[in-house]
Amino acid sequence: MSKTKLRSAQYSINEYVKQLKGYSFASIADMRHMLNRCIKDLHELGFNLAHIKELKPKHIHVLVEHWKTQNKNPATIKNYMAKLRKIAILLDKPLLVRLSNDTYQIPRRIYVPSHNKAIHQVNGTTLSF
After folding, report:
1. Residue 74 contacts residue 109 (beta carbons within 8 Å)
2. 67 CA to centre of own chain
3. Whole-angstrom Cα distance, residue 33 to residue 41?
4. Rounded to an integer, what distance in angstroms lies between the CA atom of residue 31 and that of residue 38?
5. Could you tell me if 7 and 14 are in contact, meaning their C-beta atoms sit under 8 angstroms apart?
6. Is the pLDDT of residue 112 over 60?
7. What is the domain partition of the chain in residue ranges?
8. pLDDT tens-digit profile of 37-81?
9. What is the pLDDT of residue 45?
10. What string of DSSP letters covers 4-66?
11. Which residues, listed in sequence order, are joined to residue 126 by a DSSP beta bridge?
12. CA distance readout (Å), 82 to 19, 34, 75
């Protein structure tokens, strides 16, 4: 993995994220973090991008498949996709990321928990209600 290309790509992300107006500091920081994670994942997979402008649709497909193999939550993948769509608009590449997550076969979010999240014990004592 070429560290100079990775740092160059991360610098380009920072430059584009600075152009965002009308977002909170937390939203901008979140976007910067997620996009840096995407670039780092691509570098780990062997795609040595030196600039965010080098992103292509094939990279998006590779990222989605990589996240699926990591068993990331569908909601997490959809959040990453939203950030990638926003950067595609900033890069003036509207066709970089498809509008629908169905084309990437990302599963639907599950809003109902699959296991009980109730707290039954606190510091060794059982709670009763």
Report:
1. yes
2. 9
3. 12
4. 11
5. no
6. yes
7. 3-126
8. 999 999 999 999 899 999 999 999 999 999 999 999 899 999 999
9. 93
10. HHHHHHHHHHHHHHTT--S--HHHHHHHHHHHHHHHHHHHHTT---SSGGG--HHHHHHHHHH
11. 121
12. 17, 10, 11
Q: Provide the 3-class DSSP secondary structure of residue 84.
A: helix
Residues paired with residue 122 on neighbouring β-strands, in sequence order: 125
Identity (one letter) of the amino acid at 82? Answer: A
Contact 72, 121 (CB under 8 A): no
Please report where in the chains the tokens 């996009």 appear, as a residue. Answer: 35
CB 5 within 8 A of CB 49: yes
**Sign, Cα dihedral of 98, 103, 104, 109:** positive
Share of the chain above pLDDT 70, in %: 95
